[in-house]
Specification:
The chain contains 13 helices and 14 strands. It is of the alpha+beta class. It folds into 2 domains: about 1-135, no CATH class; about 150-394, Jelly Rolls (Sandwich). The protein is globular. It holds the Pfam family Cupin_8.
Length: about 400
């Protein structure tokens, strides 16, 4: 197995990447050290590469992520790939799957923090190894299916207008009546033909992605003071936050491009044709969490098609003309696209104008898709275990 994995890597591509001089003097020094380690990959290389990776990690976590130089992300991926080569070369017991789990974790760190170097070798390694270790028998928990919610109207407020619902639209009608007018709409059954509608479940996600490392949001809302994020495997996330009835906190795999990270999941969906009306390639994000996860009232700059695969979600919408009643955070808080109001328990003494806000609400059921125009305020809450996929487009 290890020889097959090692054969997937063309080390000459790393050598070519490291042979190009860099303007940053410190990065250039790191580049030369990596090039030296590549030439030898001795038993001491693993320790040296770990030191380099930790140094680069500090560079990646200094300042705003968008301002991090691609040079440092490239170098981070190089150290990850070379560390994995060292691990595989030293791996003698092919029955020890803990080594393989560690390699998958390193691959995901390279994908999350680095760049897809060497023909995206980290993604290829992770996929190949995950297929192997997922087929090794182990004790699997018995998981009940999502219980359907029969009284959906119980979650709706009779004094709030409802989001319009339509059957599947052709592209021309969608553009003319909804996108151009920036009018929200729930499109019933839009994704009923996706393979994901039959395949996606907790068991399936554990099978195809259980050992993959992802960022998990911990806390009820990202606006809460105790909200945080943690990197963990999907298996651990499911065990700790989905199957654990005594969990005291909410965990949410939210707004993450898991479908790029795990190609087999991407094959289970199709991009709605409405997204092709945009000028750029769509951004696809995966959302997975237990009942009660919340995305606070906020806006996004792009058109959004939010699709529901498993479970149910309550959605509240407000047009941007209602902003004066919604009390967004200030620019200084770096959350000016987010309202200070707790939609479920609004403090009308602190936010008295909110009572004047005119909104829409609705519930997404499996197979549904919601079109959310740019800069439209939206609040989303899971009414059950939920899998959703969102598509942002210009």
């Amino acid at each position: 197995m290890k020889f097959k994995l090692l054969s997937l890597l063309d080390t000459s591509k790393i050598e070519r990447l490291l042979s190009v001089s860099m303007n940053d003097q410190v990065a250039n020094l790191v580049r030369r050290i990596c090039l030296k380690e590549l030439a030898t990959l001795s038993p001491h290389s693993y320790k040296n590469l770990r030191i380099l990776r930790d140094f680069i990690w500090e560079k990646l976590n200094t300042g705003h992520w968008k301002e991090v130089s691609r040079v440092w992300r490239d170098l981070y991926s190089v150290t990850i790939v070379l560390k994995i080569v060292c691990i595989l070369k030293a791996w003698n017991d092919e029955g020890d799957i803990d080594v393989l789990k560690d390699v998958v974790r390193l691959c995901d760190m390279g994908l999350l923090m680095g760049t897809p170097i060497c023909d995206d070798i980290c993604s290829l390694w992770a996929s190949e190894i995950h297929k192997l270790i997922s087929n090794i028998p182990n004790k699997r928990p018995k998981i009940s299916p999502v219980n359907p919610i029969h009284n959906l109207s119980d979650y709706l407020n009779p004094i709030i207008s409802k989001i319009p619902k339509v059957d599947i639209l052709n592209l021309e009608t969608f553009i003319e009546k909804y996108k151009n007018l920036e009018a929200p709409v729930i499109i019933k059954g839009l994704v009923n033909d996706w393979p994901a509608m039959d395949k996606w479940s907790i068991q399936y996600i554990k099978l195809v992605a259980g050992y993959r490392t992802v960022p998990i949001e911990i806390g009820c809302r990202y606006t809460d003071g105790n909200w945080t994020q943690k990197l963990m495997t999907i298996n651990n996330f499911i065990d700790e936050f989905i199957l654990n009835d005594s969990a005291t906190e909410k965990g949410y795999l939210a707004q993450h491009n898991l479908l790029d990270q795990v190609s087999s999941l991407r094959e289970d969906i199709n991009t709605p044709e409405y997204c092709f009306s945009g000028e750029e390639e769509e951004d696809i994000n995966f959302w997975f969490g237990p009942k009660g996860t919340v995305s606070p009232l906020h806006t996004d700059p792009k058109h959004n098609i939010l699709t529901q695969v498993v479970g149910y979600k309550y959605v509240r919408l407000y047009h941007q003309s209602q902003t004066n009643y919604l009390y967004p955070y200030s620019e200084e808080d770096l959350m000016s696209n987010t309202s200070q109001i707790d939609i479920e328990n609004p403090n009308l003494n602190e936010f008295p104008k909110f009572i004047q806000a005119s909104g829409l609400e609705g519930i997404l059921e499996p197979g549904d898709a919601l079109y959310i125009p740019p800069k439209m305020w939206h609040y989303v809450k899971s009414l059950s275990l939920s899998f959703s996929v969102s598509f942002w487009f210009q």
